[in-house]
Amino acid sequence: MCYKPVVLIHGVMTGSASMEIIKLRIQEKHPGTIVYNVNRFESWSSLETMWHQVLEIGNDIVKISASHPEGINLIGYSQGGLLARGIVQTFPNISVSTFISLSSPQAGQYGASFLHLVFPGLIKDTVWELFYSRVGQHTSVGNYWNDPYHQTLYESYSVFLPYINNDIPSAQSENFKANMLKLKKLVLIGGPEDQVITPWQSSQFGYYNSNETVIEMHEQDIYKEDKIGLKTLDETGRLHIVTIPGVNHFNWHINVSVMDDYLIPHLD
């Protein structure tokens, strides 16, 4: 039996080739399933601003969705999962049935290992001086860098994450939530051995408080106040939290066991 079409969005500093294993596995397990593997913003282009990528890739997916009125599955890995959420929340005319976020910094990022993938010379504790500026906001990573010790600057300068999280009210706040609530299923996959997404619980909307203690999703305002619909999705059985031990960040999208046991079964 084939699934509804699947759209894949790759992570930072990689490209569509990195998602080919997932594509081939889905088609091997369920022949006839159409898989679109997004090839925009590869390599260094993946550092372009989040909003630019959301709008460009989103317009591509609008066309895909129009060809498949029955709905599509959307899978985003790492930064791609945050882009995917931005697309879900921004485009009312994209019919996403199931959205799977595969080890993505949904609540932000504050870790040296991720930072050094892109900016090896920068230091986690002081990079806020770059990211929380007009110049720093011209990078995708700067758009979701969430320093728990500099929250006022984060909210003052960050043009992406605090808005799609509805931490800062905007003209789009109601739409951001309403579009999220159109999902039939939201799957948040992550795990404690990720070693790149920091804290790893960000993949499931958990994050640091002001003294770097991790507060899990259910205790976060974004959930308790239902800012983007997480609580409603949860209470209606549409939110699935999947924690998988022993998987490094660079293996999520190439680990066939993860695909077979946790990813493919959630597709429809």
TrEMBL record:
Q: Which UniProt keywords apply?
A: Disulfide bond, Glycoprotein, Hydrolase, Lysosome, Signal
Give the catalysed reaction(s), semicolon-separated. S-hexadecanoyl-N-acetylcysteamine + H2O = N-acetylcysteamine + hexadecanoate + H(+)
Task: Show the PANTHER family listed in the entry.
Answer: LYSOSOMAL THIOESTERASE PPT2 (PTHR11247:SF27), PALMITOYL-PROTEIN THIOESTERASE/DOLICHYLDIPHOSPHATASE 1 (PTHR11247)
**Which enzyme type, at the first EC level?**
hydrolase
Where does this one sit in the cell? Answer: Lysosome
Protein name according to UniProt: palmitoyl-CoA hydrolase
Instruction: Give the EC number(s) under which this enzyme is classified.
Output: 3.1.2.2
Q: What does this protein do?
A: Catalyzes the cleavage of thioester bonds from S-palmitoyl-CoA or S-palmitoyl-N-acetylcysteamine (unbranched structures) but does not have activity against palmitoylcysteine or palmitoylated proteins, branched structures or bulky head groups. Conversely, hydrolyzes both long and short chain fatty acyl-CoA substrate.
- The superkingdom of the source organism is Eukaryota
Protein family according to the UniProt entry? Belongs to the palmitoyl-protein thioesterase family.
Which Gene3D superfamilies has this protein been placed in?
A: alpha/beta hydrolase
Please tell me one Gene Ontology term that the record gives under cellular component: lysosome
Q: Name one GO molecular function term.
A: thiolester hydrolase activity
